[in-house]
Amino acid sequence: MALLDLLGRRWALRILWELREERRTFRALQEACDGVSPTVLNDRVRELRSNALIDDGEAGGYGLTPLGRDLLERLAPIAAWSQRWAAALEKKR
């Protein structure tokens, strides 16, 4: 339940998604998240770091930890299903 609570917080999944391919600085992450407020972004980053899903490595910026990468791999079937769902909805319009 703790994981669902964390992932259910606004912007948490988006932050993880935006870090899937590359490390990002705070500013780049904020821009990728469509301008989420700095306060909210800082709170989510702190929560995700304290739960070992992202880190702020020596290379600079934020990136996924091995646990964070593993989580996104586990969520991949949901992402694939959501694409099929969106296409089905588009057909109905």
List the helices and strands and how they pair.
Blueprint: H1 2-7, H2 12-18, H3 26-32, H4 38-50, E1 54-55, E2 63-64, H5 66-92
Antiparallel strand pairs: 1-2
Describe the protein in words.
- This protein is mostly helical and 93 residues long.
- The chain has one domain: Winged helix-like DNA-binding domain superfamily/Winged helix DNA-binding domain (Arc Repressor Mutant, subunit A, Orthogonal Bundle).
- It is built from five helices and two strands, in the order H-H-H-H-E-E-H.
- It has helices at residues 2-7, 12-18, 26-32, 38-50, 66-92; strands at residues 54-55, 63-64.
- The protein has a two-stranded antiparallel sheet.
- Strand 1 (54-55) and strand 2 form a beta hairpin.
- The mean pLDDT is 95.
Number of strands: 2
Approximately how much helix is present in the residues?
55-70%
Number of H/I helices: 5
Cα-to-Cα separation, first versus last residue: 36 Å
Major β-sheet, in short?
2 strands, antiparallel
Decide which structural class fits the backbone: mainly alpha
Low-confidence parts: none
Short description:
The protein is mainly alpha-helical and 93 residues long. Helix content is 65%, strand content 4%.
What keyword list fits this structure?
93 residues, mainly alpha, Arc Repressor Mutant, subunit A, 2 strands
